[in-house]
Design goal:
single chain, alpha/beta, Rossmann fold, 6-stranded parallel sheet, 44% helix
């Protein structure tokens, strides 16, 4: 069942998955963005009817207070309690991530950094294959922790024009200001440009399908984005000491995310590969979402390496969204790792715990971007500005050397502006 790749005697390097942009998708998205920019709500209503089968002209684009209240009643008590606990965990986790303002003074220069929350953010929450109240929490809670004043959630509605009760319950409890019944590229456009109903935001976060991802790419610069999401990824590292059944269950858990989810099972033991293959065949028989799982497992590779040093090289080459380290001493192995969206250590730490907010956010870098980016953090919802104040003595002291550089660069205005601070004892009077 697993594709086998033996790297023990080969110098071959593995390539991280890459986000490929379909020109047809790019053209379609560009047209949708332009239409929403010009026509606003009318396009959201039209495309929702086409793609989701919901008539928002009847139900309205924005979720009403009555719908929020109904969702609170319709969400089962056990699920409500679980979502409340998830929000509490995420709040505690993200509170540790905020940068702090600071000031220093040296040589007559007062300097530091000012931290301010964004005024507004947009959180995209997928629909379609499943209902994702957890994604609501993952994107809204860090915004609340950061102090963002206006938080807009966009999510595709059901065919009757409603939003699933757990999604609305999570949005209200997590602290969203508004929920809009719109998905796809048109939702990204609405948040980037604003419409009659959907407020314009400063940053858009959250994963989505190829059209959502391409829309985020095209509006980046008009608004901030968290990143471009590709299919979910997992790299598992294990040795012969591990129970093969655990690996099989982890492979299935990853596979049910998405038919294009990618998994690499890296091990020093060919015998473990055989055992996992057998365990996987047994476990799949009782798995749900079989069509998705079977397709995804077709992309799964078992990679045999010489030793854990080579395993670490493979992990860094792949730069996966999730890395699960199932070794007797996982901390020792992690010390040699550079690239990973999130690391899960030890046999008890199944990756889905992180998907549901146990000490991790599940909005993580994919497509090899863990080489240069991080998972969603509270710090992504703030801006940091430098603050500088020079005394007159400091201006006089720094001006000669800084002006020298400006003259060398041909920036005469820069040089004169700095030199004027060094030359003038008193400001010149302005004739009136």
């Amino acid at each position: 069942m697993l594709e086998f790749l033996d790297l023990r005697e080969r110098g071959e390097r593995l390539e991280a998955t890459r986000l490929e942009i379909d020109p047809t998708v790019a053209d379609t998205v560009a047209g949708i963005l332009q239409r929403v920019f010009v026509e606003g709500d009318d396009v959201l209503i039209e495309l929702c009817l086409r793609f989701d089968g919901a008539d928002l002209a009847e139900t309205g684009i924005m979720v009403t207070e009555e719908e929020f209240e109904r969702a609170g009643r319709d969400t089962p008590a056990e699920l409500s309690e679980a979502l409340d606990a998830l929000i509490e965990r995420l709040t505690m986790f993200h509170a540790r991530q905020l940068p702090h303002e600071w000031r220093e003074e040296h040589d007559g220069v007062r300097f530091g950094e000012m931290v301010r929350p964004l005024a507004s953010v947009g959180c995209y929450v997928p629909g379609g294959r499943a209902v994702y109240p957890s994604s609501v929490c993952m994107t809204v809670v860090p915004a609340v922790v950061a102090g963002v004043e206006e938080i807009v959630v966009c999510t595709p509605p059901l065919a009757d024009g409603s939003v699933p009760a757990p999604v609305l319950y999570a949005a209200r409890r997590a602290g969203a200001t508004y929920v809009a019944k719109t998905g796809g590229a048109q939702a990204v456009a609405a948040m980037a440009y604003g419409t009659e109903s959907v407020p314009r935001v400063d940053r858009i976060v959250g994963p989505g399908n190829a059209y959502v991802t391409e829309a985020k790419r095209q509006v980046a610069g008009t608004v901030g984005i968290d990143g471009l999401a590709g299919p979910s990824e997992l790299t598992i590292v294990a040795d012969e000491t591990l129970d093969a059944r655990l690996v099989a269950l982890d492979l299935i858990a990853q596979a049910e995310h998405d038919p294009e989810a990618r998994t690499f099972f890296v091990t020093t033991s060919p015998e473990l590969v055989d055992a996992v293959d057998e365990a996987l065949e047994r476990a799949v028989r009782t798995a749900g979402r079989r069509e998705i799982i079977d397709t995804s497992l077709g992309y799964t590779k078992a990679v045999v390496v010489r030793d854990l040093d080579q395993a670490a090289e493979v992990v860094d080459e792949l730069a996966s969204e999730h890395v699960l380290v199932l070794l007797p001493d996982p901390e020792a192995f992690v010390a040699s790792i550079r690239n990973a969206g999130a690391l899960f250590l030890g046999r008890a730490t199944a990756v889905p715990f992180g998907d549901y907010g146990v000490a991790s956010n599940h909005v993580l870098p994919t497509a090899g971007t863990a080489r240069f980016s991080s998972g969603l953090r509270a710090s992504d919802y703030v801006t940091i500005s430098s603050v500088v104040e020079l005394s007159e003595e400091a201006a006089a002291r720094f001006a000669p050397s800084t002006a020298e550089i400006a003259w060398a660069e041909g920036l005469v205005g820069h040089a004169k502006a700095m030199q004027s601070r060094a030359e003038a004892d008193e400001p010149e009077a302005i004739d009136s």
